[in-house]
Amino acid sequence: MSASLNLYSHRPGAFDPQDVGIAHMYAAQASIALAAADEVDNLPAALKTRHTIGVAQGILRAHLSLEADSAFEVLRRFSQDYNLKLRDVVDDIVSGTYAPLLSR
Fold first, then answer.
1. Coil/strand/helix, residue 1
2. Domain 17-102 is in which class?
3. Residue 72 and residue 10: Cα distance in Å, rounded?
4. Distance of CA 66 to CAs 9, 55, 90, 99, Å?
5. 3-state DSSP of 13-80
6. φ, ψ for residue 13 (rounded to 5)?
7. pLDDT 10s per residue in the chain (104 long)?
């Protein structure tokens, strides 16, 4: 993520090099603040997805007698082969939508 800071003046050349330097500093700080806020906003979804991946791995392990790493590999490969987001695949496995995957 990046941020920009737009400064306007009614007179040309209103901003000297020091003003421009200060504006760059504020833009950099705003960018850092926006990135941190975005990361905090996405944290609950990331934690939920991580948990759901673990549940889906458990389902695959139980149905297919797989180790944890192998179960994750099946999830990853299915996601890539069918051009689906991993979070969508695991949500569907946990909800029972992808039952055919369990019989592979």
1. coil
2. mainly alpha
3. 60
4. 66, 14, 16, 16
5. CCCCHHHHHHHHHHHHHHHHHHHHHHHHHHHHHHHHHHHHHHHHHHHHHHHHCCCHHHHHHHHHHHHH
6. 70, 25
7. 566 778 899 999 899 999 989 988 888 888 888 888 877 776 777 778 888 999 999 999 998 899 989 999 999 998 899 898 888 999 999 988 766 566 55
